[in-house]
Design a protein that fits this description.
Layout: E1 4-6, E2 9-10, E3 13-14, E4 18-20, E5 25-26, E6 32-35, E7 71-89, E8 103-107, E9 116-120, E10 129-146, E11 157-164, E12 186-189, E13 225-244, E14 257-261, E15 270-274, E16 283-300, E17 310-314, E18 317-321, E19 324-333, E20 337-339
Antiparallel strand pairs: 1-4, 2-3, 5-11, 6-7, 7-10, 7-11, 8-9, 8-10, 12-13, 13-16, 13-19, 14-15, 14-16, 17-18, 19-20
Length: about 350
C-alpha cells in the first residue's frame, strides 16, 4: 500500500518523520490490552489505549506493572494491520527513566519474542513522547517489553497507526469456464457438534456466516476434526480460498490442512496447503496446481478442536467459507469439465 510522508508536532519539538498510510487511524483504540502484572490498582493495561494522554499517574491514565523480568505490555488489535507508526507517551510526574531500553515488537504472535522488533526507546525525559517508525510491519499484536532487568513498566498512552492488511491474494493458475461442482456433491464431517451444524450446510447455497442463522457446520472437539465433500467425480483443482469465521473463534482454524485426492481417507490424499495464521474473517488463498481428486477434505491435525464451515457467494463463483472454512474451490473436471 502507498505511504505518504507526515511530520508530527509534539509539544514544541518536531517529532521523527515516519512514512504514513493515507486514511490510517489509531487502531489501538479498538483493541484490548494486557500486561505482565498489575503493580497498582489504578495501573490497568487498558489505560494505555483509552485516548487519555495525561501523563500524571494519579490521574488514573497510565499503566503500571510490578518489577517483572521482563515487564511487558501488549495490545491485541483483533486483526492483522500494516503499521506505520507507534507513538508512546511516557510518565511525567516521576520515574521517566524506567522506560529506557523498552522494545516495541509487532507480529501475529502474542509472544513478543516471536515478533519483529520495530524499535527501541534509547533516551527518556519527563513526559517524553516517542515516535517509532515501523515501516508497514504487519501484525495483530503490538508489544512493549523491558528486557534484561527487573523494572516497572508504565505507559501513559500507546497509539498505533495503521491500515488493515491488504496483501493481494496469490494469483493461481486458472482455466476458463471453471464452475463450483461442490454444489452437486455430498458433505460429511467427523461428528455433529450441535443439532444445527450439519455438514451439508457448507454446500447448501446459504451464504450467511453467523452460526446462529443455521447456515454453518460444526463438529465436536475430535482428534482430528475434519469436514469433507465428495464431488462424485475426479477433478483437477486449481484453487482453494478459505475465509475464516468472523463472529468468534477464528483461532480454531490455525493449522488446518486442505487435502485433495481420490480416497475418502484424508491421510492418503495430497496436501494442497496449511492455514498458518488467522484473524477474524481472514481470507486464505491456496494454489493447488491442478491436484487431482474426488474428495476435498479440511482437517485440523494434532489437536482436539472444533471445525465450523459456512457458505457464501464470491465474485464470479459460488464459494464456501469455513467459519473456519473454505471460501472457494476452482477446478477443472478431469478430462471432461471444470470444478470449483
Amino acid at each position: 500500500m502507498k505511504m505518504i510522508d507526515l511530520f508530527w508536532l509534539v509539544g514544541l519539538c518536531l517529532a521523527r518523520a515516519c512514512q504514513r498510510f493515507p486514511n490510517e487511524v489509531n487502531v489501538a483504540l479498538q483493541g484490548t490490552a494486557d500486561q505482565s502484572s498489575l503493580g497498582h490498582d489504578v495501573g490497568l493495561a487498558s489505560h494505555a489505549i483509552d485516548g487519555n494522554h495525561d501523563s500524571i499517574y494519579s490521574k488514573e491514565s497510565c499503566t503500571h506493572t510490578n518489577t517483572d523480568s521482563p515487564s511487558w505490555w501488549r495490545v491485541d488489535l483483533k486483526d492483522t494491520y500494516e503499521i506505520s507508526t507507534v507513538i508512546i507517551t511516557n510518565r511525567k510526574d516521576c520515574c521517566h527513566e524506567r522506560l529506557q531500553g523498552a522494545e516495541i515488537h509487532i507480529g501475529d504472535s502474542p509472544d513478543a519474542s516471536k515478533n519483529a522488533r520495530c524499535g527501541t526507546i534509547t533516551s527518556t525525559s519527563p513526559g517524553s513522547v516517542h515516535t517509532i517508525c515501523c515501516s508497514g510491519l504487519k501484525g495483530r499484536y503490538v508489544n512493549v517489553v523491558l528486557r534484561g532487568k527487573s523494572q516497572y513498566l508504565t505507559l501513559c498512552e500507546v497509539e498505533v497507526f495503521g491500515v488493515p492488511n491488504q496483501d493481494p491474494a496469490p494469483e493461481c493458475k486458472r482455466k476458463p469456464n471453471e464452475v463450483n461442482v461442490a454444489l452437486q456433491g455430498t458433505a460429511d464431517q467427523s461428528s455433529l457438534g450441535h443439532d444445527v451444524g450439519l455438514a451439508s450446510h457448507a454446500i447448501d447455497g446459504n451464504h450467511d456466516s453467523i452460526y446462529s442463522k443455521e447456515s454453518c457446520t460444526h463438529t465436536n472437539t475430535d482428534s482430528p476434526s475434519w469436514w469433507r465433500v465428495d464431488l462424485k467425480d475426479t477433478y483437477e483443482i486449481s484453487t482453494v480460498i478459505i475465509t475464516n469465521r468472523k463472529d468468534c473463534c477464528h483461532e480454531r482454524l490455525q493449522g488446518a490442512e486442505i487435502h485433495i485426492g481420490d480416497s475418502p481417507d484424508v491421510s492418503k490424499n495430497a496436501r494442497c496447503g496449511v492455514v498458518t495464521d488467522t484473524a477474524p474473517g481472514s481470507v486464505h488463498t491456496f494454489c493447488c496446481d491442478e491436484l487431482v481428486g474426488r474428495y476435498v477434505t479440511i482437517m485440523i491435525p494434532g489437536r482436539k478442536d472444533y471445525l465450523t464451515l459456512y457458505e457464501r457467494l464470491s465474485r464470479n463463483a459460488v464459494t464456501w467459507d469455513i467459519t473456519h472454512g473454505i471460501h472457494s474451490l476452482f477446478a477443472l473436471q478431469k478430462e471432461t469439465g471444470y470444478f470449483q
